[in-house]
Amino acid sequence: xxxxxxxxxxxxxxxxxxxxxxxxxxxxxxxxxxxxxxxxxxxxxxxxxxxxxxxxxxxxxxxxxxxxxxxxxxxxxxxxxxxxxxxxxxxxxxxxxxxxxxxxxxxxxxxxxxxxxxxxxxxxxxxxxxxxxxxxxxxxxxxxxxxxxxxxxxxxxxxxxxxxxxxxxxxxxxxxxxxxxxxxxxxxxxxxxxxxxxx
Length: 199
Hints:
Blueprint: H1 2-17, E1 21-23, E2 34-38, H2 45-51, E3 57-62, H3 71-77, E4 81-83, H4 90-101, E5 105-108, H5 126-134, E6 138-144, E7 160-163, H6 176-195
Parallel strand pairs: 1-7, 2-5, 2-6, 3-4, 3-5
Antiparallel strand pairs: 6-7
Helix pairs in contact: 1-2, 4-5, 5-6
């Protein structure tokens, strides 16, 4: 299967090329619906966040990528599905919830787009909405160093991925404010992981 083949190749690349360190992979539930929520620095983030998860991850990816010949075919085979950015894409949200209800693992970037500065951006409320509707935990995930890949003076930087403890959305309030607060809580946890010197 293509996913398994790509994973083996990426493990070799990340482990030996980028000397990648993996922390907290035992925090990822081995079964049942779960969301892997990571910060977003570069196009390398989805493969880095997914490679060391011992489960298939279904990523939301901007719909423009699916229109690119060959690339669109490949990312579909790697379990990604399209989402329209800049608007509430109900079809993509339904797909995400269905996958989680069926016990799959979903990969999301709560910021919605890449951070050009490397700092944490404000979270979008979509993460909390999906977590609430599906009733699944969220694993805050920090990817570190991907924004330095192929940059001047740092062709093969040392990478790191840190998986935090799962967090469940538990609240009496489910309005937009509560959703935003939970999504931001996940981003705050990701920032703590990024700055954790003990990792």
